[in-house]
Structure formats: structure tokens, C-alpha cells
Amino acid sequence: MLKAWLKLFVELTGNNYVSQLLVRFTSSTWSRMLVPIFAKIYRINQEEMEKSLSEYQSLHQLFTRKLKFGCRSIESQPNCLVSPVDGVISDFGFVQDVEKYSIKNKQIRLEEMLGSKEKADVYRNGKYIILYLSPRHYHRIHSPVDGIIKESWVLGEKSYPVNSIGLKYGNSPLSTNYRRITEIQSELGNIAVVKVGALNVNSVHLTARSDKLGRGEELAYFSFGSTVVLFIERATFQFSPDIAGNNDISFGKSVGVFSNA
Question: What does UniProt give as the signal peptide span (predicted)?
């Protein structure tokens, strides 16, 4: 019963009032008693956490935890693109598939997601990958390439769940939820990092210290589980043969390479 209640509380609500209560509670010291329960239910890897479980004073602190220094390696191959997050690979493929139609049940429309035809045109011949962060995942977002932040913009207002129930019954949440988009210009072409908010708390927080980014450098974090969609400009990008839908991936791992880099 407790597991079912906790999953409902942190994953499924799209009601604004309930979402605000969620923020207040998870940020309060009252939520500290749920930290060990949450860690057990979601099987959080405590070996990677920067702090011991007892040091987290609220669920929010646990959600937004950092990793131990050096516990992850960033792929060093110069022409590769790395995963910006720990997450589940929901889908990947050619951008042409998402211009006007849904990807399976993911309901992405390129112009709607990026906000204009002009923005969408940059990526029409490229590739995309969708990465879903569940409550158990590390929630910080990193740069997939070395590059410069070319532009950042915000679209959408309210946010609804982006889990399987939200995707099935929601109104195209990946395309219409509150989202912060960071466009990175690199020697490998433009990369759009679309950070999709989940729940009405619109929990996307930018942390980049400057416009210049190194591969694997922290870019932002989610307060709650959500989704990152990468749009890759160049059609010459080839996905790694060992990535597959519904598989977990860790940030810093290669998701593919640019064949002409």
C-alpha cells in the first residue's frame, strides 16, 4: 500500500494544487522520514551518491543529488555524442518521422516542440533520441558535446506527467509541456537539448556557469523525473549499434558518432 501511494504521489499527479503541495512537502524536513523508504522502493544506487543517505534532509535533496566525483567516465572519442542523463531510451530515429506524426505513443510534433518552423527546419534532416528519467534516476542534465550555447528559450506553461500514463492520456505532453530548450553549437553541428517539465511545478533549473560547455559538464537539473529529447542536426550521425529502446543508459556513455567528423 505504501509503495502504491508513494508512486502515485510522485509520478502521476497533473493537478496544479496537488503539485504545489508535492513541492512543499518534498522540500520540507517532514519528508526526510521518507528518504530511506524512497531509496529502497526505487532501488537508488547509493554507492554513486555524493553523500550518505542519512545526510539528505528532504526528498528534494535526494531527487537533486549529485554523484561522487569520478564515479562516471565521459566517452573520450572526439566525434561521439554522449547521453546527457541517466535514463531510459524511450525511442530514437530520423527526425522526418516526427515532423507531422507521432512517434508510437510519444506524440511529438517538431514545430510545436521547438516553437517555430524556423527552428524545426534546422533539424528536419537529422536524428532524435528520447530519454526518460524515472524517480529512481539521477536527475542532473549534462552537455552531450563540447560547444557553445547558441540560444536558450522557454515554451509552454503547464506540465503534465510524462510517464506511460501521461503519454497515453495526456495532450501531447512532450510537445506542449513547459520546456527549456538549449541549443548548443558545436563542431559536430547544432544539438537541441529539450528539457521537458513534468508536473505543474515546471521543475527545470539551469546550472551552466557559462555559455561554453565541455562534454559531460552540468547544464541543468530536474526536481522531479521527466524527459530529455535531443535533436541532432546532421544526418551523418549514426546511433551506436548497442543502444536499444527501453534500455537504461548512464550519462557520459556514447549514443552514437558523426561519420564525417
Answer: none
Provide the domain limits for residue 201.
80-258
Q: Which of 19, 31, 58, 86 is catalytic?
A: 86
For residue 246, being part of any structural domain is answered with yes
- 91 in active site: no
143 is an active site residue:
no
Q: Residue 36, exposed/middle/buried by CB under 10 A (0-12, 13-18, 19+)?
A: middle
Task: Note whether 51 and 144 are same-domain residues.
Answer: no
Quote the CA–CA distance of 182 and 113 in Å, as a whole number: 13
Instruction: List the chain pLDDT tens, one digit each, 261 residues.
Output: 555 555 554 444 555 566 667 778 888 999 999 999 999 999 999 999 999 999 999 999 999 999 999 898 999 988 999 999 999 998 898 887 665 544 445 556 788 889 898 999 999 889 999 998 988 899 999 999 999 999 999 987 665 554 554 444 445 555 567 789 999 999 989 999 999 876 645 578 899 999 999 999 999 998 876 889 999 998 889 999 988 877 899 999 999 999 865
**Grid cell in block for residue 71:** 564515479
- Tell me the pTM: 0.84
* 111 assigned to some structural domain: yes
